[in-house]
Amino acid sequence: MAKWGQGNPHWIVEEREDGTNVNNWRWTERDATSWSKGKFQELLVGIAVENDSGRGEINELKQVEGAASCSSRKGKLIFFYQWNIKLGWKGIVKESGVKHKGLIEIPNLSEENEVDDTEVNE
């Protein structure tokens, strides 16, 4: 532990009468849920895949449940999120012209899981 008057300059908080969180050195947290929901809509709806057999497209964000937050501790950003997402898709088989539609479900999209461990159900 540093002696009084020495040490990290961020620690001036205890010298301030108003106790201001200087440079967000202590823990701060911001809710990012509504921003994230808008970003899902922007990034996911409209994704299309096409090959010689047919074409498929995500056409609807049916359900988004969960939460996201951005925190800061000692100048380091930390992101937390957990989402259950349901997406509607439609597609067409080129040769026959048959149309299909369905649902894609991502039941636990979280910062705790590796990308390869993310479960996607069709």
Automatic annotation (TrEMBL):
Gene Ontology cellular component annotations, sorted alphabetically: cytosol
Start and end residues of each Activator of Hsp90 ATPase AHSA1-like N-terminal domain: 29-122
GO molecular function annotations of the record: ATPase activator activity; protein-folding chaperone binding
SMART domains: Aha1_N
SUPFAM superfamilies assigned to the protein according to its UniProt record, in alphabetical order: Activator of Hsp90 ATPase, Aha1
Signal sequence range: none
Organism expressing this protein natively: Pan paniscus (Pygmy chimpanzee)
Family, per entry: Belongs to the AHA1 family.
Biological process, per Gene Ontology: protein folding
Protein name, entry field: Activator of Hsp90 ATPase AHSA1-like N-terminal domain-containing protein
